[in-house]
Amino acid sequence: MLYLIIGGCVIILIIIGIILTLYYKNKYTFLYIKVNEAENNLDILLQKKEEILLKINNLLEKKKIKDLPDIIKLKSKKLDHHTLYTELSNITNDITKIIDEIEDKIMDRNLQKLLDLLNDNENDLRAAIKYYNDNATDINYYAHRFPSNLIKYFSHYPDTELYTISKRESFAILKNN
Predict the structure, then answer these.
(1) Contact 39, 132 (CB under 8 A)
(2) What's the pLDDT tens digit per position in 3-59?
């Protein structure tokens, strides 16, 4: 009788273990699919941002603006999404700073269209990064909880790194002075 009770408990524990394993494995799979989808969207948006910045840079070069950031060097480097996002954000800040300082002299319809495209791209990038960060945060949350951390360890799921969303500074104060 005692062996029957112990055997039943062991079978119940095995069933619970299998259910938990399947649940967390599906949870991780679904979250990694969402993170990969966000990375694909980010790749497209970062390429689009790079193209817009190149067009803005070319337009500013035609207007004889000096000390522009070198976007072409960035294009030749093989960077991961996180580094590329940071570099493009820095270049965007540099270009907007230059434009804000001499906006009265250089602003025209073409530059305004490109700046509007850049602004729309920034909004799309922020949305994609928020989607990525939300899912990566869930992955990191489950990675530090028992028993889901065991599933992650034995399934060899990679770690996820969060993006830091950088906000563009407004230089309207400088224009008024």
Answers:
(1) yes
(2) 889 999 999 999 998 998 889 889 888 999 999 999 999 999 999 999 999 888 888
| C-alpha to C-alpha distance for 68 and 57, rounded to whole angstroms | 7
Q: Please give the Cα distance from 170 to 100 (Å, whole number).
A: 9
How far apart (Å, rounded) are the C-alpha atoms in residues 134 and 150? Answer: 22
Please choose, from the candidates 168, 62, 63, 61, the residue with its C-alpha nearest in 3D space to the C-alpha of residue 125: 168
- The reported pLDDT for the residue numbered 171 is 46
DSSP letters for the chain: -HHHHHHHHHHHHHHHHHHHHHHHHHHHHHHHHHHHHHHHHHHHHHHHHHHHHHHHHHHHHHTT--S---HHHHHHS---HHHHHHHHHHHHHHHHHHHHHTHHHH--HHHHHHHHHHHHHHHHHHHHHHHHHHHHHHHHHHHTSTTHHHHHHHHTPPP--PPPPPPPPP-HHHHH-
pLDDT tens per residue, range 148-177: 778 878 777 777 888 877 665 544 444 444
Q: What is the pTM (predicted TM-score) of this model?
A: 0.77
Query: How far are the Cα atoms of 58, 80, 124, 176 from residue 77, in angstroms, in the given order?
Result: 20, 10, 24, 38
Tokens of 133: 């960060």
